[in-house]
Amino acid sequence: MLSAHRNDDLLTGKTIAVICAVALFTTACGKKSDAGAPDDTYASLVNKDGTISFPADFPESYMFIGTWSVTAPSGEAEIHSVYSRPADVDAFRSAGKFPDGAVLIKEVTIAKSADLVTGRASWAGDRKIWFLMVKDRKGRFAGNPLWGDGWGWAQFDPTDTKKQTATNYQTDCKSCHIPAKSSEWVYTYAYPALGEKGQVGLPVNSHRGNPPGIVPAVATQAMTSGVASGKMAFDKTCRACHSINPGGAGIGPTLAGVVGRKAGTVPNFDYSDQIRNSGITWTADNIDKHIEAPKSFIPGNRMGNLFPNGIKDPGQRRDIIVYLKSVAQ
C-alpha cells in the first residue's frame, strides 16, 4: 500500500515500478507455513472496532512476493518489499483473487546506491514505514475511515509496529492505488509469486530494463523531438495521476490547457486551499519551478507530500512543458 495524498495541478510522482524479476515461491522467499490461514485474520489481527494490528508472526509466517524500486536522479530513492502468507498466495494462484482475510505487508526502506562492478546498484537501507492491507469481502466495518473498497488499510511506525499511524484510507492510502482499481486495488503484476493470474493491468508503457549504457533505438529516435521526449517523460512520471483530456481528472486535475491557466480553477476538482488560494498562474516558468520543487514552491500543497523531491533534470522538465504546451492547442 502506498501512502499518498490527492495531488494538485502538477503531479509528476516519479514513482516508477521496476519489477524485481525474481520469482521465489517457497523456502527461497521465506518460511512456508500454514500459520495465519485467512480464516484466522480477524481473530488475530483485527479487533471488534476494526483496528488492525501488525502480525506478531512476521516475518516467520510470511513469504516475499515482489519488490518495487522507486527511482531518483542519483539512483533508487526507495525500495518497497512486499510480503504475504503462503495460504493467501496459494489461494490467489488458484482463483486469481485474494481471499477474504488475506494480508499484504509492504516494507518501505530508503535506498542506498553506489557504482559497483556491475554498474549503478541500490540496496535497502533504513526503514521508512510499514503498510498493511487486510482483504474484506464482507464489508465488516462500515463507517470506519480505515476500511473500504474491499480492504482494511493501515500504516505502522518504522521503528515501533505497535503504532498505527493512518487516519483515513481515502487520503492516506487509496490515491496511489487508483490505477490498480480493476485488480482490486493491488498491482498484482509486480508480484511474481502470484503467478500468471497476477499478470493483469500491466502498464502499456512498461518495458524491460536494458544493460547499463544501452539505449533502445526507439527511445533514441523519439528523443530527437522535444514533444516526443516530453510525452515519454510525462507518460512515465505523470500520466498515472493526470489526464491530458479536458474534463479527465484523476487523482489530480486534467493538465489539458494547463499552460497559462490560473492554479486551482479546473471545475469540479477538489483542490487544496494552498493551491486554490495561491494566486499562481501556470506559466512555463512557474510550472518549471513547481515540478522542480513541489514541496516548497507552493508550501503545504498535496503534491509536495507525495513527491517532495521533484524533477531535478532541467532538460526533462523543459520537455514536459513543451509537451504540455502541445496538448493545450
TrEMBL record:
PANTHER family xref list: CYTOCHROME C
Protein name: Cytochrome c, class I
Molecular functions (GO terms): electron transfer activity; heme binding; metal ion binding
Transmembrane feature ranges: none
CDD domains: cyt_c_I (cd20750)
Keyword Transport among record annotations: yes
Organism expressing this protein natively: Sphingopyxis alaskensis (strain DSM 13593 / LMG 18877 / RB2256)
Keywords: Electron transport, Heme, Iron, Metal-binding, Transport
PROSITE patterns, sorted: CYTC, PROKAR_LIPOPROTEIN
Cytochrome c domain boundaries: 225-328
